[in-house]
Amino acid sequence: MDSAKSIFDEMLVGENEARSPYSDYHGWFLEEDAARLNRKSKEAETFFRRTGITFNVYGQEEAAERLIPFDIVPRIISGREWARLSRGIEQRVRAINSFLYDIYHRQEIIRAGRVPVELIAQNEAFLDKMIGVAPPGNIYTHIVGTDIVRTGEDQFYVLEDNARTPSGVSYMLENRETMLQMFPELFSKIRVQPVSDYPKNLRRSLSACVPDKCDGKPVVAVLTPGIHNSAYFEHAFLADQMGAELVEGHDLRVIDGRIAMRTTRGYTPIDVIYRRIDDDFLDPLNFNPQSLLGVPGIMDVYRAGGITIANAPGTGIADDKAIYSYMPDIVEFYTGETAILKNVPTWRCSDDDSLTYVLEHLDELVVKEVHGSGGYGMLVGPAASKREIAAFREKLKAKPGNYIAQPTLSLSTVPILTKKGLAPRHVDLRPFVLVSPNGINITPGGLTRVALKKGSLVVNSSQGGGTKDTWVLEE
Amino acid sequence: MLGKTAGGLYWMFRYLERSENNARLVDAGFRIALTRSAAAEDEWMSVIQTAGVQEGFLERHDQADASTVTDYMLRDKTNSSSVLSVVEAARNNARLVRTALTREVWEATNECWLALKDVLARPVRERDLPETLGTIRQQSALVRAALHGTMLRNDIYDFARIGTFIERADNTARILDVKYYVLLPSVMHVGSSLDNVQWETILRSVSAQRAYRWLNAGDINPKGIAEFLIRDRRLPRSLAFCYTKLVDNLGYLADDYGHRLPCHDLSEEVLAKLRGHTIDTIFDQGLHQFLEEFLSANNRLGRQIEQDYRFYG
Prior knowledge:
The complex is a heterodimer. Chain A is built from 16 helices and 26 strands. Chain A is α+β, with helices and mostly antiparallel strands. Chain A has a five-stranded mixed sheet with strand order 5-26-25-22-21. By secondary structure, chain B is mainly alpha-helical. Chain B is globular, with a radius of gyration of 19 Å. Chains A and B meet through helix 2, helix 9, strand 10 and strand 12 of A and helix 1, helix 5 and helix 6 of B.
């Protein structure tokens, strides 16, 4: 694996010198009493538990309502670094929306031979029902969470595009709230760009994409699978913060070509649905007939312009891991510019030469399922046992098209507070991007996920990762 | 407001009310058991009857005593009305209607659940019982305080209050009904100390012993108690008080939404009946029969509200 030397720590250079974005924070930290900080750490946990910021873990017993561990040392990004990052993200998100429009209409990019047709035609994430449909404002991905990793001073990579229903934004907001409550003095000393406008911007952004049939003030609703869903807290939180209704499938039905919700006074039409359920469950008449979470007939209403669905059905084709490897081409094709943010080099295992290479180098690669998420079903070669690698080899050989492989990146670290003081841990970053006909809005910062286990590269909360508040400094 | 949200609010506050009522019932049972050991088993059984859970209780326990009843009423998960079950149900409903609650109300409910889950994680020892019951009532009070102090007075508040008073009216009527025989003038032990303890238990079960003594200069008699719990609109747990509130809150909904529904007539009928009677006519008609009719009308009203405001469909 990577030697300690090649790992980039975002805070410390050597023993006790901080990189410039961290210098004020580090100065403050050195003055602080360690016992007080440890106490504050515990306080944060109480705060989260009381607020009910918990998530349910699938496949575990009831009462498995867990907290995502929160670390009180912030991850700090300078204004200059952020300017470059946000330019890169904006470029990429713009390209993704153009790609989606194209792929469901003329498919110029396939005609131009930049993306192979099989990738679309045989892809489960491609929805035939979206062909020829133009969503209101031509926006497909109203909300995107671009996962970014860093390996050096100027090395940023996009790891995943998350163009379906990215989660975690409630943690971004609550982490900041918690930090403001615990360390008000830090925020008067260090100028941090605020994140609290996100819910307002989300509402505004969704309201800007109303369907033609909307008359009057747009009615926005968040569609959740219900209180047993792992991200229910976030669904309720966002609805609450936006002043939107929180609905489930059984609150809704199709009436006169609109989607209407059952209220205490009868049925009222909705204009925009921010759905937090997958395409497959959205409409039992058009997709998975077993689904009890969706609304029968909603796709027909959508296609007829009676409702806006955010994100649009079928956006999964853009964040599919097999498509990912074509992103640099996609960015160039639609924007005419070179991609500002790099892709992680990716072997597509459907390709014979790549497969051979991957099979020979399993112990040094990360292998992911094309449709997987949440850190499930992946192999982290350098951390895996011989037996795990052998088992994975069989799965890979059986269905190579189901996998991609990437080199193990030496992700940057940011220290966390442990009982013995600061200790470096690997992090990634998920900034949240809002897209509307009025433009693209990126909240400064995002969600920093941190692998709490020493040396671990897996930051997913379902796999024992934690989070940090993310600061973007005012210039 | 979504029909589902109205239903969630209604049930959230019914459950919170039930949690507090359970604590009060156990407290009254405990008190009488400590002072009258001969009658203890009967007293503990009447706690179970009042809560309407005798069937489930007898499946689990052969005998009603301090430890079996306390456990069943406070922490048994197989009892859907135990404090632990109802607080969890209240919190689940609160999660469901999270967008209708202020942060204060949500956090008070969540903390109530966290605190009681902790306190009731193990069987409650006799010496800890008073403190545990105190905690249960205090946690309820905190949610109520957050509701009164932070919520808009709109339809959300109305549904929360309607749930509270349907549950409370049900509870007070059951307390009276389980003990109605000790309130009858014809009963043998009139004036004996047994009756005094029984009457005291009834008053204690609705936290009204002090108020009653204060209003009646210490003169405790069965008719006075029945009158107080049924008809006195100053007592916040009396049937008349609950129905005055129900008619008010349903009335606000009718004004707010601009039309009346069958539940409005129904609630007004029940209130008119409570007002139309005197305690003597109630006793003439038969206290037990009166209470049975009341309980069934109260249930009917609950179902009518559910239907009129589209809780489920």
